[in-house]
Design brief:
about 190 residues; 3 helices; 12 strands; mainly beta
């Protein structure tokens, strides 16, 4: 059974799955209500160094840059509607290929043009991030977002990192930006 995380909580994925080397972060959501405009959510990942900023613009992985420079982080594809059961989008992280300069991988979801269209996570229901072991497809941890992010157009769901002891860990973040992708990417050091 997967560990259920609360905002700010973390768990050692290495203890849950000894020998873990690669995971897929599955992200899902449903639309609660809209004003009739198109509503498109997008997953992304930021490979950041000690300073909390991306190592390069190429370390911002999303629908227009599907793979990090080292090939360790791969964007799984764009679901523009969120329809259907299961994960809407995925980010795969291969820790064996991840460069030592990467201190954590920040996984976020943004509403495409959300700030401009005045769309936010208040119109999103059942949002979650789940971490799955690629070796056996077992769900190791899950974070269900709460309602306290309703005014934001971009959300950091989780961070994955290696601890000082070398364990692979995941932390539930649940932090948002009303300014959407532009504000989030800028805070991570990406040049848009």
């Amino acid at each position: 059974m997967a560990v259920s995380l609360v905002k700010g909580g973390n768990v050692s994925l290495s203890k849950e799955a000894p020998g873990l080397s690669s995971v897929t972060v599955g992200l899902g959501w449903d639309l609660r209500r809209t004003d009739g405009q198109a509503f498109d959510l997008d997953a992304s990942a930021f490979a950041v160094g000690d300073d909390g900023r991306v190592l390069s613009d190429g370390h911002f992985v999303f629908y227009n840059n599907k793979t990090s420079p080292d090939g360790a982080i791969v964007y799984g594809g764009d679901n523009r509607t969120g329809d259907g059961a299961g994960d809407d989008e995925t980010i795969r992280i291969d820790f064996g290929r991840l460069g030592s300069a990467v201190k954590k991988v920040v996984v976020a979801v943004t509403i495409h043009d959300g700030a401009e269209r005045r769309q936010n996570f208040g119109s999103v229901a059942n949002a979650y991030a789940r971490v799955v072991n690629d070796a056996d497809a077992r769900e190791l941890a899950r974070y269900d977002l709460s309602e306290d992010s309703s005014t934001n157009a971009a959300m950091i769901f989780v961070e994955l990192y290696r601890s000082a002891l070398g364990e692979i860990k995941v932390k539930a973040i649940g932090e948002g930006w009303q300014s959407g992708l532009a504000g989030l990417a800028s805070s991570m050091g990406v040049n848009l």
